[in-house]
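PT: before anyone asks, these are the final sequences, not the draft ones from last week. 1225 residues across everything. Please model them as a single complex and drop the result in this thread when it's through.
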Amino acid sequence: MKSELDIMLTVDGAEERTTVEPRMLLIQALREKLGVKGPHIGCESGRCGACTVLVNGEAVKSCMMLAAQADGAKITTAAGLAAEDGTLHPLQQAFHEHHALQCGYCTPGMLCAAMDLLKTNPKPNENDVRQALRGNLCRCTGYQHIVDAVLSAAGTLGSGASAVKGAAE
Amino acid sequence: MNAPDLNTAQRAETGKHTGKAMRRMEDMRFLTGRGRYVDDITLPRQLYAHFIRSPHAHARILKINTEAALAVSGVKGVYSAEDLHGTRDVPPNWVLPGSQVKGRPALAREIVRHVGECVAVVLAESPEAAADAGALVDVAYDPLPTVFSASDALKENAHKVHGDLPGNIATTFKTGNGGYEEALEKAGREIAFSLRNQRLVPFPIEGRAVNADFDPATERLTFYTAHQIPHMLRRMLAGALGFPEHKLRVISPDVGGGFGPKMHFYPEELTLARLSCLLKRPVKWTERRSENVAATTHGRDHEMEVRVAVQNDGKVLGLKLDSKANVGAYLSSMGTGVPTINVALFALGVYAIPHSDVTITCAYTNTTPVDAYRGAGRPEAAYMIERVMDRVALELGLDPAETRKRNFVQPDQMPYAQPTGTTLDTGEYAMTLDLALKNAGYEGLRKEQEEARKKGRYLGIGFSNYTETCGMGNGYLLQFVGFDRGGYESAVVRVHPDGRATVLSGSHSHGQGHVTTFAQIAADELGIAPEQIEVLQGDTDMIPFGIGTFNSRSVPVGGSAVKVAAGRVAAKMRRIAAHLLQCEPEKVLVEDGIFKAADGNGTVTVERVAHAAWTGHDMPYEMGIGLEETEFFHPQSMSSPYGAHIALVEVDPETGEVELKRYIAVDDCGVIINPLLARGQVHGGLAQGIGQALYEDAGFDAQGRPALEPSIPRFDMLPRFETDHTVTPTPTNPLGAKGLGEAGAIGAPPAIVNAAIDALWSLGVRALDMPLTPERVLTSIRNAANKETEV
Amino acid sequence: MYQFDYHRPASLKEASELLKNCDEAKILAGGQTLIPTLKQRLAMPSDLVDLGALKELSFIKAEGDAIMIGAATPHADVAVNADVRKHLPSLAKLAEGIGDPAVRHKGTIGGSLANNDPSADYPAAVLALDAKIHTTKRLIEADEFFKGMFETALGDDEIITEITFPHPKRAAYVKFPNPASRYAMVGVFVAETPMGIRVAVTGAGQEGVFRVKEMEEALAKNWSADAISGIKVPVENMLSDLHGDAEYRAHLVTVIAKRAVAAAI
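LR: through. Structure below.
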């Protein structure tokens, strides 16, 4: 039996202490130890991005990182993006407005990847978005509504966007 | 370019809420990381399963050594076929009459027939212990000869996948009215070629997941599963398990994408249900991606030889199709139906082709079972007939759009019975194609193509005018093709005493947005806001019955059930309101939850009406208690959505890369309930169709192992789509809606391949197979060049 | 994953000791290849030595005619670093084209080189630019470092500390990626440095990254795409997989090398 490790994570603002096996992945610690179910597992190779979270503000695939590596880190998941009063983050709101999610399984990771983009490039164009989010697979949307949502949140949604007529405004 | 999106969606009459791009009410939990999928559910005394799978495509199991595995701390047991006595094989439930049925064993007995087949299962107190023990289960195999493709399996000396089944034939299906040779004589010209729909891995981002929970106190089995058709699964599971159906509760919570494979019944489900009953503990299993690519059903894998008799003016007089479909090692749920009925009936597409002769043979092979995947047979049919149309045009030097127009079934011929067996209910194909041509700026594109060619650049334009049928029904007809499910959908609409409503639906959303669209439909009937309506689904204890979500049927059939049930509740509310307002029910108007008489001053609220209905106060006795109606909407026949798609590609002749520069889609799915969600469905289908055309392949290696990482399209691999609609309502249901979830996946592959061939036609390239990998395209260019020099 | 012990040394010395004293220790440099490998139970180390706390290994310095990059520097830092973009824009572009942002945040240059995946990008840059690889024990020349697929000159307890790149007169990296994984099917790094002209190819060779001397000689005489358009690499040394067979890869090497020459600045 290998020695277990005590780790401390700040997850969506809350300090959490837990004990993990050295081999436990960050995604497993979040889901199984801390009950944080937003990030999902969609592959074994790190190619799908459904587990993406922000580790100290940077997008990381939490299935490609050991929980032990994250000891002391600040983790943000989709559940931590909204304001305390429940008001959605502008990016979440844009996802809603642009129908940027269908089954919702990739969405928490997608939001974190997009947050990372907007931090490093607050005014992206369409190509920037497509490049920055390429590590996150979605099998439902064909991506266009997600692109529009991210551009809209950044205020860079141009005339090429998918106009929605017949909206119930 | 600015897509003129959604501008025709309003052409049909819609209501206050239907026809509007309402934002989804179900979004909030997903956006805040609070979706609830099967893996999120962990029960007290939870056990975890880890399956041991065959690494061989065909082998005899000599010995399963579990000693080391059982020694791992936390292991409850290791189970193989002999531990599951009394469990039948997983039966298919669409079996074409005359088929040779080989169902999937829960756990393999003696022989394994495909890579990934379940051989044994470890149950343990933690997923880690289960996996650790799983790595220690030692199975000795004696490999046997293999066969992977349908054409190889149908060769005379092919080895047998099932020892007692000579020839490996699962079924043969023939249709059409014959007369091809006469048509050829009359037409004077024949075009013949072969095509292939490669095998695809459906790849929902959430794999399958199960938590089977037998409760010895109540003797009930609660079965959580990521599924598209919970009631059908309950029936299939109860049957195979020998478990009373009324004691079996299937719950399908949030589901992370379906695309077909999550409507089938699987060995893992049967095994875990049995073991939960035996051990009286909940057993959970979450599929890993490597299991998903090997053991969850695949799609397509269909080889075709097509010949058409064509006149010099491009009119096609006859079509002869001879094709071979790979069903895999066992028949999955719809294994013999999808590659036969769903292909053959649509072989003539939207064209009036007088003579046809279709033969489809389904073969067993040592591969993962093949079953419905987005489009399910119709993509194979559309790919063939649409490749034919562009090929005819290119061979004859005609315009492909004009060639199609010369062959279209005309609006005044509707409903049109195709001699292959389907009936097209509606369609104004030329109108839809013209809108696509206009949106594409077709004439300009041809000029651009010409200019580019002068500079050594290869642009190509490809077309696709697919059709399909959706909204599967009716049951009486379905029995004749061996489809052992009903052709209806259920809805319960209940208005509560506070005036809010619940809709229960037998459909099941795995991303489609039923919670919103069904609320829009009910809201229009009930005269209350959609936000006042909650749509519930996915629990067989709660929903009367259901057929579920597949075949783009949720809106046309499930939505129609909601409309009819809500309409009946609304009628009763009007009667009660009329009594309260002291006017005739016909005079009662309702809007935003307020009833008023058309010619009077008084109003009553929906709460007052509902209170009367549920208390019997202020209401004549004869009206009866309650505001609840159940509808099993059962369409007489199916609807025929269709569309016109145009692809613009550029091929790099140095590397063989195909760049999809533009994709123009005009779809006609009849009346649209929510144009925003409809567009989401079109986009998603296109992504999968483009994926098939350009990137995806199950990619078996020489040992029959599928590729671990199929090339699923990413953000930077797809263009911005230009979508639009025409609206020809269907008469087959009260919504006039036809369904469109599969449209993009059906329409896109031929449009793109046609475009690539158009780009390279002048270089002598006549055919290309999917996916259009750079290597494959470059090889075609080089082969064509070599041929040229030989001549 | 099999079980292992985890260590997060605070110094290089401690890290070296751990590597020496543990049974079958592996270095965790970023983990973007190692962790998926462990998940598939394809490796069974007794211990993982995480270099994540060694901040002294994460740096980019420009001194004189050289750029020094610490071994634990993530790809994302290389991609945006002002000195790299100024003196070695080809390397910044290479780093920007690796995987996706999440991978670039964790993956490190030292990890990539030590792994020497045949379709990784960095080996092409190191070989073409004739970079120097500094370790806890010595300095290794690029030509001596790569020893075939997944093989390097590194000893078991040897840790890469720094890679020193010269300022090239001109250089470019052009990659023909697998569209989904973005691994190089063929990647060609061409460079003219004070030490000479080099052409290094990744993604294509059975033995991992390799130089095409014939192209180097041709370019030395005439720096132009035309000068190498007739030079083919031997098909029998090429990789072959689902995405492209050996013949296709050999063809691509010439096509992509021409494009790299044309793009070199």
